[in-house]
Amino acid sequence: MAWIKKVYLYLVSLISLVMVIFAATMLINMGLKAWIFKAADYYPAYPVTCIQTPDSTSADKTQACPDQQQQDEYQKAANKSTKERQAAQSIALLIVALPVFIYHWKLARKEA
Fold it and tell me: Dihedral of CA 86/91/96/99: which sign?
């Protein structure tokens, strides 16, 4: 019965260690993209084609086509929210997985 406990402790330690490595890798990746490789996080937006009907006036054509500045602002906001979401996920994963790993690893070492 003692071998089941050892297998459990080592298995949980391994899984939580993998989670810690994954979260740390995500945080390092985000840091590198933010401060060193700034162009690595750039995704160009496709140009929007405007649909124009034959009976539309020139005023209607300008209102129907979205402004390039609005598209750029939307793209920046979307990129910022994606980065914040990834950072929150990585930090949460570290907060959960690191104590689980440390606790189970100490128990496993004590049992051995």
Answer: positive
